[in-house]
Amino acid sequence: MSDNLPLKGIKIIDFTHVQAGPACTQMLAWFGADVIKVERPGSGDVTRSQLRDVPGADALYFTMLNSNKRSLTLDTKKPEGKAILEKMIQESDVMVENFGPGALDRMGFTWEHIQKLNPGMILASVKGFSDGHHYEDLKVYENVAQCAGGAASTTGYWKGENSGPTISSAALGDSNTGMHLAIGILTAYIGKQKTGKGQKVAVSMQDAVLNLCRVKMRDQLRLDKVGYLEEYPQYPHEMDAFKDGVVPRGANAGGGGQPGWILKCKGWETDPNAYIYFTIQGHAWGPICDALGRPEWKDDPAYNTPAGRQPHIMDIFGTIEKFISDKTKYEAVDIFRKFDIPCAPVLSMKELLHDKSLRASGSIVEVPHKVRGSYFTVGSPIKFSGMKPNVTASPLLGEHTDEVLAELGYSAAQIAEAHAAKAV
Ligand SMILES: CC(C)(COP(=O)(O)OP(=O)(O)OC[C@H]1O[C@@H](n2cnc3c(N)ncnc32)[C@H](O)[C@@H]1OP(=O)(O)O)[C@@H](O)C(=O)NCCC(=O)NCCS
Fold first, then answer.
1. Best mutation site among 38, 77, 106, 139 for ligand 1 pocket (most ligand atoms within 8 Å of CB)
2. DSSP sequence for 360-382
3. pLDDT at 255 exceeding the cut of 90
């Protein structure tokens, strides 16, 4: 464990649940912040018991989003619980929450009240929609945000039986929003070092998804001007796809200036992931021709410019697919990597879990846990040259209640009273 973690000394009240908030505070905990998870006595974060794989133990849903934290149980609707939370606010730097709209206010912890308790406090919130939005009252989960933020309307196939809007399995609404919030918190913290004042930081899930759909908004603006999108697989054969003036779903097409597609490799008939992603980078056309053994394509005007290739781009992908049909996805990538072609195998969760490089880099880590035994989790995706975050187990429900209360200055008798009042 690095003892030089830069966020050491920053105290965070982690009043979060499910995924969006916990993903944010977990990352801050990895980098050294003292993150105290505040949970309802008796039940705690709902993810502790959702999708359990080991009877009686915290579910992976919880353990994989709450490592490196401490847990305090607190009923913040009871006067004794409110008083403890007030004391925590006075002694902390940041409070993070992702309750439904208005829940914190209904609990009595309005921004005005929090500021009175601690003018330096940074209050960081995740909501489905931003303050003042016409949907601000809505409760939101992952897929709702993917629909509201533009991801679902632009993902999937544009034709065929399953051509409706499609959800990504990446947590664009949840964890992505948490990552945005972490940037907001650290920015506000640096601001506080200059001004001494805290501030409210808010990220809506809709905004966080939209921020990742930036290039799709770019496409809408281009479509409005030009009437079609030249790099989409529908162009130029299916111009009807652009008729309604709305960015169509582009299936597996590349989102930028270089076309790409998912290509079958040896074994695709039985292995659902025997595929690679192949990108045709404009300046790599020569090497692509060499890799495929098609030198004649280099000078052929139907092949040697993006405009020449686009009308038959799917045929070109078909030719590449034929070339790799007797090669596994790994063999195919091993050939193309020699020619500097941007490509990769489609990797399953199972392959990623056992990937030697991910284990070596700390992107997949094994963590010992008191109750469930050790478990694997996704470690920090951010690597530093001067420190190495160490992932430690998620806390048991209320594991640190007495310890945290004692640190706040409560005597043993006062702690016993709080227990008796069922406030903790
Ligand atoms: C995720 C979400 C839909 C879950 O909704 P929910 O299960 O109904 O939970 P809520 O957040 O509304 O909270 C329910 C109640 O628990 C209460 N509560 C939470 N922790 C408590 C505690 N420690 N002590 C006492 N009460 C507590 C809240 O005050 C709230 O009470 P109220 O509605 O009576 O005022 C909702 O929290 C939400 O929309 N959050 C914002 C967006 C978000 O982060 N979504 C993604 C999550 S991955």
1. 139
2. HHTSEEEE--TTT--EEEE--S-
3. no
